[in-house]
Amino acid sequence: MISRSSLARNAQKAACRSWAAQPLQRRAFAAAANTGAFESSDVSGLKVASRDAHGPTTKLAIVAKAGTRYQPLPGLAVGLEEFAFKNTQRRSALRITRESELLGGQLNASHTREAVVLQASFLREDLPYFAELLAEVVSSTKYTTHEFHEDVERVLHHKQATFNADVNALALDNAHAVAFHAGLGAPLYPTPSTPYQKYLNEEYIASYADVVYTKPNIALVAEGAPSQDLSKWVGQFFKDVPSASQSGQSLKVEASKYYGGEQRTSHTGGNAVVIAFPGSEVSNAKPEIAVLAALLGGQSSIKWSSGYSLLAKATAGTAGLSVTTSNLAYSDAGLLAIQLSGPAASVRKGAEATVKALESIANGSVSKEDVAKAVANAKFNVLDSAQQPDAALHLAGSGIVNTGSPYDIAGSVKAIEAVTADALKTTAKALLDGKATVSTVGDLFVLPYAEEIGLRV
Amino acid sequence: MVSLAPYVLKRPWLSRILKPVASWYVGASGYRKLGLRYDDLMEEERESVQIALKRLSSKESYDRIYRIRRAVQCSYQHKLLPKSEWTKPEEDVSYLQHIIDQVEAEIAEKDALDTASVIKKH
């Protein structure tokens, strides 16, 4: 039998709960009205960008212009990534790990060709702790010898081995090397044959950190943090971050130049071919390239069908082949890369089909409908990547460190909408007439030369 | 381990009085006559010392092994080194102790964190 008092208590609880839930709901409505663009501001010389969807968690990232492109010696960007969240002047690496574990936070460091990203994801109320932690990592990491030997080097070997066993990554890396030579062409991880001991030690890493971890060279990006709180804590904790490097050195930045060419590497771990052309940079100066990437495609966006994309249709019958096309955009250059992998014979067929598909676009034999689909897909890809929390943080951060403000997503979407079939035709023709980049990894007996599939290198 | 050394070192007058006695005692303990340094005598059968030894630079590590082997050789032969090769007081510097202290602090911190109890304040 249920007593009246217990019923009353339940009702009370329910009332309590609905009352407690209200503010959250109200927040959700506010979030829907949010445009999703980052608000950027300048807190005592450090550029800070944030957007707030009023969710319960926050992501905070430092994006430093320190990727493999800028490293003066091979491996320094990797070293910097590995030294993130290690011993600092104020606390040990173990304490950092355990404390953030107690708060339920996640710490993550990564590097790309252009940036080193230190990221923390945590509960909303722990913003001060993690803001302080990131400031500490940037300004007072110790770069000790024993950590270099015991942790950094050990992990580096594993990462190198993983990277070099992955034919896709290797082919893409080689494609960058062929396309851009130095700078963007620098390998993401030093190759096993690089005598990296000559170039990589804790002192060099520390001096690289001194150069790159300066206020004009980094951006602090937050997802899910109110901008007033953020600027308050940043003002307090990021005081120690220097505004210029102590050694007086500065980062060497050279404009990227596209070269093109061919590279063939034999590998027993699989087969991969990357066919690449000069692409569009992040600011999307050439929106046709984004549409072209969507039109070539290779992966179906719908189930049980090969989809509309030319490469997916052309390679539907080829066993075990995986094709993806993407415009790898960097701050001042881009690479339209078609990546093929699978059994050697299939990859060969796929490479031939790729060139045929490009030729068909250059001939103008692509239907209006397919172009419309490609435009819609390209638009979705741009907007989607701006909405994914991690990708959005990286994008906003690299926009700030490279151009001073987050990239204009709405502008590039507009540009994509304006792409016509004629523009695609001329672009594809120009790509085929120019120098291509072909990087082949795997069974070189079967995999074709660029000349054989009809590309100029 | 209880040591009076910090107490003595805090008082300059006391350390001035005791310094000659200490120097005599170190000389009398005899390790310098075998060409060793004080830090060569650290017992290796401890986790912290093992880790600390790995953190020595290759030069320091080589020199340490050399001194120990030379001392063992002397010990076999029941001889001392010629006086010119004895460790001079100014050469007898600590090269390992600070690393051991650092490693021990790391281990202590790890133990403390492993047994930490969380008090929620909110």
UniProtKB/TrEMBL annotation, chain A:
All residue ranges annotated as the Peptidase M16 C-terminal domain in the record: 201-376
Main localisation: mitochondrion
Keyword Protein transport carried by entry: no
Membrane topology classification: Peripheral membrane protein
Coiled-coil features, chain-numbered ranges: none
Entries under InterPro entries matching the protein: Metalloenz_LuxS/M16 (IPR011249), MPP/UQCRC_Complex (IPR050361), Pept_M16_N (IPR011765), Peptidase_M16_C (IPR007863)
Domain of life: Eukaryota
A Pfam entry, by short name: Peptidase_M16
Peptidase M16 N-terminal domain span: 48-189
Location in or out of the cell: Mitochondrion inner membrane
Keywords: Electron transport, Membrane, Mitochondrion, Mitochondrion inner membrane, Respiratory chain, Transit peptide, Transport
Recorded family membership: Belongs to the peptidase M16 family. UQCRC2/QCR2 subfamily.
Listed name of the protein: Cytochrome b-c1 complex subunit 2, mitochondrial
Source organism per UniProt: Bionectria ochroleuca (Gliocladium roseum)
UniProtKB/TrEMBL annotation, chain B:
Record's bilayer topology term: Peripheral membrane protein
Subcellular location: Mitochondrion inner membrane
Keywords linked to the UniProt accession: Electron transport, Membrane, Mitochondrion, Mitochondrion inner membrane, Respiratory chain, Transport
Domain of life: Eukaryota
One Pfam short name: UCR_14kD
Main location: mitochondrion
Keyword Oxidoreductase: no
Physiological role: Component of the ubiquinol-cytochrome c oxidoreductase, a multisubunit transmembrane complex that is part of the mitochondrial electron transport chain which drives oxidative phosphorylation.
Family: Belongs to the UQCRB/QCR7 family.
Protein name: Cytochrome b-c1 complex subunit 7
